Amino acid sequence: MSLEQHLSFHPERPCLHSGEHCGRDLLVQHAFDRLATDDVQSFAVIGFSRSGKTSFIHHLCQPEILTQYLGNRAEEFIFVTLDAGQIKLDGEAAFFQHFYAELKAKTGMEGLHGSNDFRQINAWLNTHNKRLVCVFDDFNLIVSHPAFRVQFYENLRAWFYNENRVGCILTSPVQLLQLSMSKELAGSPFFNIFNTYVLAPLQLTEATLLLESRLPKVLQIRSRDIFTLIEEVGTMPYLLQRAGAQWVTQYQKQGDTTFSHALEAVYQACLPYYEALYASLKTRQLQLLTGLLQGQTQNQDNDLVARGIIGEENAQITLHQFERFLRERLGLRRKNSGILHRIWQRLFQTGKNR
């Protein structure tokens, strides 16, 4: 992306087109490696809240990206998206109503109502030499809804698995193994057909480009301040967008181009996200950290001990351990980050007195 193509920060919404998307090119390549096979392969995109899942799948569906990775075959692919977080889903009928409305808009097919119509879709795809990719964003919301029967998942699985021209991309903040243990699925092997890609933090060069492409020119040239911003907040796109937007706002208010003058505003803007992340991480790691915080002794998790996230004899969490815990999730690069230290004090020190 050329820096002349100036963009704006948009932390409260996903990327709408490929010009706004930045990084994760290797993951994009892996995705198209699965989609471009003779038998369209299904996969899941996993990442916690605001990690960029919706932006990523928007990027995959753009015509110019399809052409870049699929060449002349790009015209074969039809992407139909259902965002479970943006529509009212009160059962299977509503699911198919929304899904088939999108399919009709892309293909003109009519008279579709439920899973019994999959054969009609298959016939249309064969006749027109097309491939269908069903994109289910926030699929975890469907899994947690009691109105969806096990047979619903079995029908979808059979369609994706048996029909070469049909595949699925789903997103979730929850790992597929955890979703598969939901009582609503009752042991269904639905997720067995999905490969999994986890959205990791951006690389340093990707994070730098994201900021430079959105900052005004007077801030673009402040390479040291850009690097400091990245060291402070990490390399997850949402935090970069949030911090960059605050830097621009503070510059417009004060006329000072240094990032240090925006640090307090950045901290206040990013804190709710860190708090939400802390509250949502119901993994074995967080349970162990919480147990240690409460003075409990839990030394049986050898993996955490080996990675240095906790110490074998520690009765409480240290700032260093907290940093190690979040680094892999947020792309934090520098030890003793000022923002990290303040978040540590707020989330953990105050937590002892609750």
Automatic annotation (TrEMBL):
<dbReference type="InterPro" id="IPR049051">
    <property type="entry name" value="nSTAND2"/>
</dbReference>
<dbReference type="InterPro" id="IPR027417">
    <property type="entry name" value="P-loop_NTPase"/>
</dbReference>
<feature type="domain" description="Novel STAND NTPase 2">
    <location>
        <begin position="35"/>
        <end position="211"/>
    </location>
</feature>
<dbReference type="Pfam" id="PF20702">
    <property type="entry name" value="nSTAND2"/>
</dbReference>
<protein>
    <recommendedName>
        <fullName>Novel STAND NTPase 2 domain-containing protein</fullName>
    </recommendedName>
</protein>
